[in-house]
Amino acid sequence: MAEGGSHCTNDAAVDYYGKNIATCSSDGTIQVRSIDNPSDPGVILTGHQLPVWQVAWAHPRFGSILASCSFDRRVIVWKDSGRNGQWSQIQVFEEHQGSVNSIDWAPHELGLILACGSSDSSISIFTAKQGNASAAWDKTKIGSAHEGGVTAVSWAPALAPGALVSSQPASHNTYVFKLVSCGCDNTVKVWRFSDGSWKMDCFPPLSKHSDWVRDVAWAPNIGLPRTTMASASQDGTVIIWTQDHSEAGSDQWQGRLLNDFKVPVWRVRWSSAGNVLAVTDGSNAVSLWKEVVDGKWSQVTAL
């Protein structure tokens, strides 16, 4: 382990139980610390050679597993051995020819699957066989996903919109294998896995931004017959995308402006209940937004 650097922190992620937080830095390191014990310095993970852009925790059913992506074109999967904070690299993926800008774990119902978006314009999907992170992984790729580069990826919920929670376990065949991506071509694209390959699931691409789309986030499924996503752009706007499944022929994506922040917007993140959206913009402000009526959104607070 190395000493923690003083460089810019690029991302932070809290684990499933809210016990630990991982941060990544432009000095190529990752720090994992206890939230319950803030005086504990935690551990520093070293393995990337250049800035680390993002970190993501896998669901705990697969163990204490963390993924990271970097400007060094690599994705590393780390595992905590459970012995005095000893972490190890259990997988290093070097499938990309450019910076890997975004990573996101699939819903745990689908298995241990990691999607990665890169500046080489492609999206890679890594799937651990039998959910064993230390075993072999299958690798697939969506080539030429976004001209100029992929900036963010986000998985759809595993259950289809409007699906009711049942006392019986859902069949694997009823789960939805979808993800959304955005990029330097100013568009948002939805992808669906079917018949052994990934295919675009929105025609044409979703295009309401006039500059790079910096981030995209798929909202959790709250039981309504509607799908919701949010996208954030260099043009200063956030768009709320909805797909209504309640009426025949109304399943086209509709985009509505949430707000024009007048500065680039870097991140959008949904609450676990899917009813509050957090927006981080270029003025270092974080604002919270909630849908009020007729698809309109209101700012709840600013941090």
UniProtKB/TrEMBL annotation:
For this chain's UniProt record, which GO biological process terms are given? COPII-coated vesicle budding; protein import into nucleus
GO MF terms, alphabetically ordered: structural molecule activity
Keyword Iron-sulfur attached: no
Does the keyword Repeat feature in the UniProt annotation? yes
Fetch the SUPFAM superfamilies from UniProt: WD40 repeat-like
Q: Could you tell me which residues the WD repeats occupy?
A: 45-79, 93-136, 206-241
Q: Which Pfam families match?
A: WD40 (PF00400)
Q: Which controlled-vocabulary keywords does the entry list?
A: Protein transport, Repeat, Transport, WD repeat
Gene Ontology, cellular component aspect: COPII vesicle coat; nuclear pore outer ring
Which PROSITE patterns would you find in this protein's record?
WD_REPEATS_2, WD_REPEATS_REGION
- Which PANTHER family does this entry report, sorted A to Z? NUCLEAR PORE COMPLEX PROTEIN SEC13 / SEH1 FAMILY MEMBER (PTHR11024), PROTEIN TRANSPORT PROTEIN SEC13 HOMOLOG B (PTHR11024:SF20)
| Homology family | Belongs to the WD repeat SEC13 family.
Please identify the protein, giving its name as recorded: Uncharacterized protein
Organism in which the protein naturally occurs: Selaginella moellendorffii
